[in-house]
Fold these 2 entries.
Entry 1:
Amino acid sequence: MTITLIGAGNVGYHLGRRLHKKGWTIRQVFSRKLANAELLATKVGAHAIDDLMALDAQSDWYIISVSDDAIGQVAQQLSKIYGMQDKLVVHTSGAASTRLIAKYFKRAGVFYPLQTFSKNRKVKFRNIPICVYVKRQSDEKILLKIAKTISKTASAVTDADRAVLHVAAVFVNNFSNHLFHIGQTITEKEAVTFDLLKPLIQETVLKIEDQTPLAMQTGPARRNDTQTLKKHEAYLQKFPDFAQLYNLLTKSIQDAYRR
Amino acid sequence: MTITLIGAGNVGYHLGRRLHKKGWTIRQVFSRKLANAELLATKVGAHAIDDLMALDAQSDWYIISVSDDAIGQVAQQLSKIYGMQDKLVVHTSGAASTRLIAKYFKRAGVFYPLQTFSKNRKVKFRNIPICVYVKRQSDEKILLKIAKTISKTASAVTDADRAVLHVAAVFVNNFSNHLFHIGQTITEKEAVTFDLLKPLIQETVLKIEDQTPLAMQTGPARRNDTQTLKKHEAYLQKFPDFAQLYNLLTKSIQDAYRR
């Protein structure tokens, strides 16, 4: 099973390195920016390429890790390369449909590592759930087998369920991270150190290891502590955008306990 | 330094046990519900009381851990007990002013452990920042000294700064936790396991240990990936409240990168 990686962004970079580390052979790495292709290719012992048409059809598996908007176009271009018809071609996106690839390839699929990646940060790949989906049933075994060499959690997940996971991932990751940013903005505006809040942030996550977030909720919205809610509203007049979020999130918490 | 604990809720329970464990003597524990007072009193070797007027003035330090709305009233009642005039009296609230106590006591203060507590969950108290504030300067040394026996981070924090920390704490803790609840609601509605999202949630927090949340942001809002944003909006028609939050948080992220 040899691999061609198309895209050397955050996901391609970490996934490529992990596959390489677990003994899989990566032959070619494509990026529109040659420097990016080279950065990754050097680390995984592959050949760097910045022209899609220079890719060859010698690999068994093609992984497309480009922005969602570009997947369809890349798949189309890939399909024009001689000898590609029977290749297994997947993308790594949480939100994009398998159809973008299935339009051009019989053996289309998805290989989605459910995690947030930044190039300058190592992640424990073993803990990252890999969501696999394929058009041709016999390919499922192949992708799950590979997924299990790089992660302890590999699951077959339909397009519809992956879309649900991706929306939920935006809430739990992107939006939470933005709330941390708001916390930092508020404290640093008043010259209070954000570090004082970090143990609280850690505990927020540890709490839901074995309890539901609903059961673990605390704070003025949960307690209907109107005095404190009013104080916070008054304070947040300094930050009108944050005030709007504060009100909507407070209302949403209160609704959750009315159900 | 002997202690009387007034209130045996989440904060009083954990703080009382920690002080006891570090060798401080707790003499009396008050709760309106005798069972709660007894639960804690047994664990810290104190006497349980359910009538405020049955408290005595034999302790050096009085810790009021009741709901914000009740602090003023409790302080007033406490001040009627003979011999209480010169006692050090603090509350443990993030949001309440010191004035609620200072109205009745010269030696008023705050002893605020910046953490989220649930009775059935152990926390590493050593990691919890304790924010101390006192009306009489000489008491600051006393409270900081005690705080340092139970935590590695003890700081003098003014009422104004504590209020700021408390608003920020609501964003990073209560609101993030609610986003986790939304993630669970969405996934479980579709019979997808929420557990698949837990490694992502962990990584969200680990990422900000040494980087700012602003630098660590990823996702469709950050990338201005309009195709995915539209898909998510369409999907969230099933959850109108969540859709409203999704739009406002997306806008807020985009604003953060325009600044």
Entry 2:
Amino acid sequence: MKAIDISPLFEPPYVAVVFTSIRTEAEPGEYAAAAERMDALARRQPGYLGMDHARAGDVGITVAYWRTSEDAAAWKANVEHAEVQRLGRERWYRSYRVRVCRVEREYAFDR
Amino acid sequence: MKAIDISPLFEPPYVAVVFTSIRTEAEPGEYAAAAERMDALARRQPGYLGMDHARAGDVGITVAYWRTSEDAAAWKANVEHAEVQRLGRERWYRSYRVRVCRVEREYAFDR
């Protein structure tokens, strides 16, 4: 889940799932390994467009981009991902919010 | 722009503006001061709901929540904000993307 760059623009309409979270202190190694595994798994899902991630201290934001809301829902229901979501609630997150959004307009600046 | 917590849920439909960016190395102090000023200014705008922010190294994600797309557009057009956007392109950002999104569904977990 390391971002060395930010995602390019895609063609609206598409779906952005905004995941904001506050971590517990628990199991930093296990959490990081699961995040990396989920990143690799998401990339292989149908309709995956890209992902942006940043964490500053306990607060993290991940935005995943999908072609359709059905693609986003299929990722949420993925069996391995569902198990990691369960571990997240049990151990790794104090709080999180998930917002499923339709991207309507977008623009970019590059130096 | 320091996040000590994450925004609560609001009532869809509302607007999320997802701003992903890569910083230059330029003027960390000026950039931080402008970010803090913009945060305070945004809070006084009509339709402002909340904001989440995280930066990991050069990559930053800010998500601002607005009641309507007109509210988001009014903030983009705010005179002082427009000047800071100009400085951002000139000095502080290597790249950024802005995605204007309609939040359609949301859910939360709290321990």
